[in-house]
Amino acid sequence: MKDNILTYTPRRNDRLIQCVAADGMVRVALIDGTELVREARRVHGLSRVATAALGRQLMMTAIMAADLKGEHDLVSTIIKGDGPAGSMICTGNSHIEVKGSVTNGDVELPPNEQGKLNVSGFVGHEGKLSVVSDLGLKEPYVGLCNLVSGEIAIDFANYYAASLQRPALVYLGVRERAESGEVRAAVGVFAEPLPGCPDEVIDRLQAKSGEISRFSERLDAGELPEDLLESVFGEFGLTIVGEREPLYRCDCSRERIERALLSTGRAELTGMIEEDHGAEVTCRFCDKLYQFSEEDLRALIDAATAGEDEDE
Ligand SMILES: [Zn+2]
What we know:
Elements (H helix, E strand, L loop, with lengths): L1 H6 L7 E7 L4 E7 L1 H11 L3 H18 L8 E8 L5 E7 L3 E6 L16 H5 L3 E8 L6 E6 L6 H12 L4 E8 L6 E11 L5 H8 L2 H4 L2 H6 L4 H9 L5 E6 L2 E2 L5 H10 L2 H11 L1 E5 L6 E5 H18 L1
Parallel strand pairs: 5-11
Antiparallel strand pairs: 1-2, 1-10, 2-9, 3-4, 3-6, 4-5, 6-7, 8-9, 12-13
The protein binds zinc ion.
């Protein structure tokens, strides 16, 4: 019986809480992303280290997505390091629906020297972090910087400092059960001084990095996100300005996959018909399988050809 109690984990709603502090000079966001990281692990069958790595990136992407203004705006973060992970991509929309994918999510690594999940060993210490903001303009805005650690939170902090000249504080933590790898708690914090913020406030903010590094432990112990925020940022005069619910959700559809197939070109599609007698496409974000028979593919080509005729 005791074991049953220990492994029982009730579902709770994820939360993204947005605040201002220091007379509006600092923005703070906290995400309790426990369920969305659990969902990413379940969908992809992620290893323990991959759960931590992709989970951290998903939470940061959700925090960034919460700032999107337009209905159809999207933000994607791409981490491509020299570790066994391969590339990691997460996308979020203005409803804070996020999805993520990692090339080699089944790779497991032994703990690092501190006995923690070896996220930087999985991601790699060298590589690139890019952020693509698609705000409905002609071209998406792309920000790019080098990885500095592979631990992800530090890499995002460096992205803000190096690419945007904004000294942000970033914490991303995923806590897992030692035995099963089940996600106990996942939490992220982002604090950013706004233009005009006094240096003294920025320095005091940066000095908080040690305290926020215990947030996943404290959330797991049952503390509420509001209390975590107040305990660290309360001295700056913290006001909660909004709360939303982030979700792991993939928006793929058969129509979208059809468009992707068509974009490979007629020669490629004909090859699929003649050589493979059909096509199977798996969505990289939710692992859903889409099957296309020879007839389906022929109908696609016909429809595309009809469209071309109309254009002429
Ligand atoms: Zn999908």
